[in-house]
Amino acid sequence: MCRVPRPRFLPLALTATVAALSLALCSCSSTSGSADRGPAGAAAAAGGDAPRMTQQEMNAQPRSALRQGGTLTWAIDQYSSQWNPVQADGSEVSTNDVIKAFLPTFWRSDAGGVQTPNPAYLTDVKSELRQGRQVVVWTLNPKAHWSDGTPITWRDLQANWQALGNLNTDFKTATTNGFDQVESVVRGQDDFQAVMTFKEPYSEWQAMFNNAGNAPLLPGQYISSPELFNTSFKNRIPVTAGPFKVGSLDPKARTVTAVADPGWWGDKPLLDKIVFKAYDTGAMPQAFAKGEIDFYNNGPNTEGYQLIRSTAGGEVRKAGGPNLRHLVLNGQSPLLTEAKLRQALIQAIDRAEITRTDLAGLDWPYVPMNNHFLVPSQHGYQDNSNGLSRFDPAAAKTALDALGWKPGPNGVRAKDGKELVLRYVAPAANNLAANESEEVTRMLAAVGVTVQVQTVPAGEFFDGYIYKHDFDLTSFSLLGTPFPVSNSISTFQQNSGSNWAQVGSKALDRAMADAAKAESVDEETAALNRADTEAWQVAGLVPLYQRPAIYGVRKELANLGATGLGDVVYENIGLTK
């Protein structure tokens, strides 16, 4: 990917050209049975270069080529109980897919991740230097308003900063998105201008109030206190300010119905209605084939991939991007508190074999990922693991012996009377997780570690287990954004609500902070690689591979599919004439 140096303060149309791992979680299914286990040579046959970061398949069409009206049924993998996407319990892909139809985004992102202001909400925006401080002036569209009639003003931006700026830890945030670098947000020339001053430079300020960064603007009146922030979007969406408004929330049917909002001041939505319906990921391909749904995230599901291709009126849309499939080791589980133990377990796991079996049968390269922040196609990608990325069961056994975990009479390692028995939590009807849990169980058994797989209802996987840190081992996907640092920080920062592994270090925090204020892309990349070195050492999140962005879509649908580094403009989704 071509990269250019970047000034400290980004001008309007200049993007951060590295892409980051996002806080948005996705369980995502795969193929099942023997199809996962092709001959060993299959990996080489299907290998090749990693996909380009700027790849995108959306069936992009001008609005004039599309007809007015219609309903889209969009499958999501969980019906959320928390609809605040930046609250610690709401940071999953399904929540973001839904909420982006309803809440403001100040930016539009193209296939290359270039950011341009969204005129529906901004009439002007600029970043400048004032007395040595970075200042961003946001000038709002005075037509923009919440669905209860309240205008969107500088106070909404101030409230978002106060909630997300780490000023009060009672706000249970999934990410700060740079708000922790902000010193103040004050009124500008009128109520429709906000002046934001930063304590330290923040190169990715365009990630703020941005759907592409999974961080839309939230209504100030519903997030002004920790209680409101944490509960106002619990089982409800109190107000909207987007092209669609809430038609209904139905937890029994597991559906959210979005209807075109006649009060919307921007381009009229082409669709009348979007029905978001929750399915177990393993059931989505058949639902698509039966015509029950029009669009779904297939991911690395081989059977689903083939089914889409054979479904009349359906097509595959796929792209590269900064998406990651990974394992998580819970560093606060009683048996996993030692970093050296977690490192030994990583060395006992053949990530290349998991990659091959997960992706067998897909037109996708089997390239294991050896960096937590950069995918193999990116400038600056390198392995900073100091050997930990290498499958080495002999080294793992030696390390476990040195740590005092000795094989018992039954072959299971034990220390101080406790056997090394770990619980792997996997969502039901998800063959990707089933394959990974099976492989990890087999691989760790070879070094004397027992893994017990607990299969849980897919709809409870995140809310009931991941957000509660109720697991020893697990696996899921993180989907990416155009911003290299903003969303990654929360995944690795100590004491963050989105640090699912619950491990970290001061050195890792410092490296991420250095990346956030980098003056050039190369300086940012160097800081990310320093952070990656530390991430391998704390050994909590273990990258597997760049996750394929593969979607099943009705051919007649336009402006929807695999976005790459772009975003979905919901009012432009439509049906071809």
Q: What is the CATH-assigned architecture of the domain at 323-547?
A: Roll
Q: Which regions contain 5 or more consecutive residues with pLDDT less than 50? A: 1-23, 29-48
CATH homologous superfamily placement of the domain at 323-547:
Dipeptide-binding Protein, Domain 3
Overall residue-averaged pLDDT value: 89
The total count of helices amounts to 14
The oligomeric state is: single chain
| Percent range of helical residues | 10-25%
- As a percent range, the share of strand residues is 15-25%
CATH class of the domain at 323-547: Alpha Beta
CA radius of gyration is 23 Å
Structural class: alpha+beta
The number of distinct β-strands equals 25
Distance between the termini: 36 Å
The biggest sheet amounts to: 6 strands, mixed
**Shape estimate:** globular
What is the CATH third-level topology name of the domain at 323-547? Dipeptide-binding Protein, domain 3
